[in-house]
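Per-residue structure
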Amino acid sequence: MRYFVEVARQESVTKAAAQLHVSQPALSRQIRDLEEELEVGLFEHHARSVKLTAAGHVFYEEAQMALQRVHEAVETVKRFAGAQTGELQVGYAPSLSMEILPQALRRFQMKCPNVKMQLQDLTTEEMIVQLRNGTLHAALLVRPAAGSLASGLEYREIVRHRPCVAMSVTHELAGHGAISASTLAGKNLLVYSREHYPEHHSWIESVLKGVSPRPRIVGEYDSSTSLVAAIDSGCGVALVHDGFNAMSGFRLCLRSIDDGTHDFSFGVAWRRDEPSPFTRRFVEAVVGLDAQGAMKQDQPAKT
């Protein structure tokens, strides 16, 4: 194809052969082979020149675009090969990521051993803002609202979490098995800060819908560490997810809520136009993990 374009440009097999540093007979043979393969005559042959046929003009335009695309592909892979060292900024929610993150980092660093990973403990709102402005390459978070996804973010689910009640080991409900949301009626409730975790409050509202009297919010906390400490002290109970014990260890007692209707999605988000060649590799490293950081047996959930 490159030989054809050069002959068409020079309108001479002799000049094209000199430009391409090949022999004239070899170049002529390449052009004949191309015409035979296409079953179309591409050139009109004159005494000292060649001219494109009507079909040749069409193929000339298409061949130029194809060669340009090949050139771009070569340059892209060269840039990628030269960018094997770099930095990846990842935001995460500790209470949701503790079991997944270590294995994800191991898998990513096996593929990209020279990439420096920077982790930032952020709220969901902060992660969405920093994804949009390019400060973060990827984020591990609760599924963003539809409006955020519509504004340029991609999201892939890793796991679905079930709601649980976290309490001190001496709490009156600790001796129960699975409990219903109605069991929390009138109880003291400990929550994450509404300012920093509005999606947490929306989820709580859905879980407690119809519960009367409503639990009393007696404390708001801006981190999982402070929330665990407050629960452990016996100040109240908290609505959390089934992976929360990764943060609390054996300090707390978790009891699942048995209605099974308020699971929520946790996964990885990134910008649709994210230019970093390592972002896709990080996404690939996390989407195949389940809540315990093990490889899933089935296919990753679709967005």
Remarks:
- The longest helix spans residues 54-81.
- The chain is about 40% helix and 20% strand.
